Amino acid sequence: MSRIEIRNLVKMYGAHQALHGIDISIQPGEFCVLVGPSGCGKSTTLRMVAGLETISGGEIAIGERVVNGLRPKERGIAMVFQNYALYPAKTVYNNMAFSLQLSRMPKPEIDRRVREVADILELTPLLERKPGALSGGQRQRVAMGRAIVRDPEVFLFDEPLSNLDAKLRGQMRAEIKRLHQRLQNTIIYVTHDQVEAMTLADRIVIMRDGKIEQQGTPDAIFHDPDTVFVAGFMGSPPMNLVDCMVTPTGLKLGDSEIACATPDGLRAGARVICGIRPDDIRPAADQPGRATATVPVDLIEQLGTEKLVHFRAGQHSMIGKTGGRVDLAEGAPHPLAFDMAHAYFFDPDTERRIR
Amino acid sequence: MIKTRFTALALAAATALTPLAAQAAEIEWLQWFAAENTDGFYDELVADFEAKHPDITVKLVTQPFGKVRESIVTDNAIGVGSDVLGLNMPWTKEFLDIGILEPLDEYLARDDNSFATSDLVEAPLGKIDGHTWMVPLNAFPFVMHVNMGLVRQAGFDAPPATWEELAEQAGAISALEDGISGIGMPFSSQPPSNGPILTFLPLLYAHGGRIMADTTPNFDNPEVVATLQFLKDMNDAGAIAPGAASRTGGVDLEEFIAGRTGFMISPGVHSSSITSRNPELEYTLVRVPTNGETAYRVHGWEIGIAADSPNKDAAWTFVNYLLSPEVNARAAKAANALPGNLAALDAVREGADETLLKQMEILSGDTPVEEMRQSPKAAASWSVMTEEIQAMLRGDQSPEEAAAAVQARWLDLAG
Amino acid sequence: MTTMLRQMTTRGTPYLFLLPGLVILGALLSVPLYKVVEYSLYDNVIVERNPTFVGLANYTNLMTDPGYWSAGFNTVVFTVGSVLGHMIVGIGLALLVNADIAPRARTFFRSMLILPWIFTAVVVALNWQLLLNPFGLINYMLQWMGLTSEPLDWLGDPDLAMWSLLLISTWRGYPFIMVSFLSGLQTVPRELYEAAEIDGAGFWHKFWHVTLPQLKPVIFGVALLDLIWTFQLFPLVWLSTGGGPGRATEVLSTLTFRLAFVDFQFSQAATVAVSILIISAAFTLLYLRNEARRL
């Protein structure tokens, strides 16, 4: 269990700068998820922590040690790869035992550790198989087992679930969470899936174009986004983000006007990006007393427990939600209530939150 | 219906082709001569012939000496043999047994030949199985090429004339400096693996020895043993270039041309490549050192006609052209050799250089010897000599044992 | 009935197109094969106008000929030695030229190292004869480094000739192996090396635990192929040593050639050729089975 300090980390590929001074401070035992679209630099950051990429600037410390010049094996880390990277010619047992064998641990001790971890991960019946004879989920567990047996200070996960189907992904997600609760190791976990980020993380770091967009607890990230990007990235279906005009009484959105309170700094006539989550747009009948607008509903998506209501407001496509049993007709105008108390306002130029 | 139409077609094709075939004959000439000539003489020769005989075209097929023998046999076996063949006397009996060669008696007896048979160098004409099988394009004795610079450096003013002098001078030259040797002996097993007939036989003949009694192997005689002993003594004294067992004829020649060996025993024709490739070399050639005998191994480039040739008359026309005194003189000069047609001798002597004149002197006075042409397995027998001499130089057997071993293996081959 | 006929013609059409090729290929393979086997059953051919059928006499001759067994032994030594040499040098160089260096330098080294492959056997043999000559570069270097006092006749000494031949054969044959392994190396997932690095593996461990197992199918296939080729390799041996000195480097292929073209014993040569054929065919079957298993 170690703290990880990443200070002003820079990565250059020739003249191209991939990371622009990243600062992350991870507490011992914290589960930190790096999330962002592909190319944002999250994997590069992880690989630099692992020692698989050279560091162009800044420093990384694991525990009290700066590890910039250390080889991967000297950093006290273990890593789970996206494609598992299991040794195809070795049995599950030997895949898991390999690092211990290399460190010349006595055989009985290796055996004890491997069997213990195999037991935790329910791999015991598979120990003599080769990776080729395992299912995707089993391989994933072996990859994790290989990391766990080493009892590292830090676990690094590089999109470990992206090769699994949706159902298995859900199971494995829970398993990883449970494992973390049990082992309490410090974890850096890279994913592009915001659900994984939300469910697993103690701390989420959202990255974009080699910079940190925002970091904080899942709650803070979800409910208190700093930027348009963060607001739009987290949450499914995503937050509605629409260009509006500020009026003395509220907002003008295309032809519709919605009465609401706006931040003090905004004067009438100013342009603003208003963000409101689909959960906060409900049929008017469900939420009497809220600001309502009658809008043309052009598509209903039935998800079971709820329905997504696609409608148009001015030039914008927006999404609202309703209960699964509510009957709504496509193609007809329908009054919807907007819970503007939970609306967010962003500066259209800087894309930063106006509080 | 279909059948008759096919026959008609075939007939039409045949009639269309026949006059063509009669009009122009194309003959192939397989030889190694052009491979040993650098100035394109043979292309000019062929062009000259074609100008004089517009109805015949000659295709020059040139291969290195080491490959020609195999080519003749394989081409013959699959029926694509050349019409005119460059030949080497030792191959005669072998080729006869396969039936490759056309007897030339009838052609030699023709009235309209450009030469008189009695003018030709005699050795290759000698009848085997009752017939003559080849004619000489040229002839040359085996000689000893001498690097006079090294001889002088070692403190002598004249090349060696006797075995004793050879051993003394070769030893002295070897002692000069690293990388310089007295004499080269190409006893590599690498094909054609014929080092002994290039170097050992000329020394043996100069000692008055022979290896055949008529057509029977006669290798374990005192002269052979003495000659082997001479080689062994020179080798033990360090007079012979190291690595004889891996030295090929080609390397031997290159080393001499590069000035790293004092002496080289080989055909006289090599003098032209030596002088043209390294004009700086202080070079001369002499009779192979003797012990009083003046017998020399004779060699030459022979010409024959393939028994399977469909154009034997055209082939003979070309051979006849090559043997005419005027052409033969040119061919001899180009190879720096003596003419196969002795009527061309005067023409060759005119303007000939010293090395050629020396060869003429050897030819005119000394006794020519060629024994290999009687051997039914010439190539195999010289391979055997090579292997046993290698073993002797290595110290694995004495000269007597080597001689006995060769004799036994030859009898086995003939058996 | 007509449908069946139509089906047959449609199914047959591809084979019809293949027919000319198959006939030519079949003739090119089967005629010489048949001829060689036929030749081996006569007293002699080509040089013999009226060959006599002698059954298996040539084979019994062979079995009792110490020359044949010694050539067979040399062939095994030469083949196994060459293949081992090719493998070791080929894998080593493949690793080196697969290294992460400047792409231009890498291309340069790769093309340089392929060079031995493009020379004909004649050139290779001649060059090595010069290098291995008692006055050649190799002896000069060895003496300069003080490893030998006297120049060695590498190709002319029966104790050294086979080693020298193996050296030449290794030099000549490694590029094919190197290229095969290079393409094999490029299919090894990068992540495996990274995983091994994190597991604490150094160069040799990575080579042993990642590279080698990944290359195993390639190694097996290429080694077998190389074995088949080298087993019947003729020109390089014939041109480098001619089987000598004595018969120290005589292999089955040079023995065949010697019997045929030096001794003109074509039937006996055909017999040796058939024995080579049988052994090569066995290896080829093994190779095909290996390939089939990989598919």
Q: From the 3D coordinates, which CATH architecture of chain C would you assign?
A: Orthogonal Bundle
Helix-strand string of chain C: HHHHHHHHHHHH
What is the level 1 CATH name of chain C? Mainly Alpha
**The biggest beta sheet of chain A, please?**
6 strands, mixed
Quaternary:
heterotrimer
CATH topology of chain C: MetI-like fold
CATH topology of the largest domain in chain A: Rossmann fold
Strand order of the largest sheet of chain A: 6-7-8-3-9-10
Radius of gyration of chain C: 24 Å
* Percent of sequence in beta strands of chain A: 25-35%
Give the structural class of chain A: alpha+beta
* Amino- and carboxy-terminal Cα gap of chain A: 38 Å
Could you please describe the fold and organization of this structure?
The complex is a heterotrimer of chains A (355), B (415) and C (295). Chain A is α+β, with helices and mostly antiparallel strands. Chain A has eight helices and 21 strands. In chain A, strand 12 (250-253) and strand 13 (256-259) form a beta hairpin. In chain A, helix 2 (92-102) packs parallel to helix 4 (136-148). The model of chain A has no long low-confidence stretch (mean pLDDT 88). Chain B has two domains: 2-139 and 299-360, Periplasmic binding protein-like II (D-Maltodextrin-Binding Protein, domain 2, 3-Layer(aba) Sandwich), CATH 3.40.190.10; 141-298 and 371-414, Periplasmic binding protein-like II (D-Maltodextrin-Binding Protein, domain 2). Helices cover 46% and strands 15% of the residues of chain B. Chain C has 295 residues and is mostly helical. The two termini of chain C are 38 Å apart. Chains in contact: A-C, B-C.
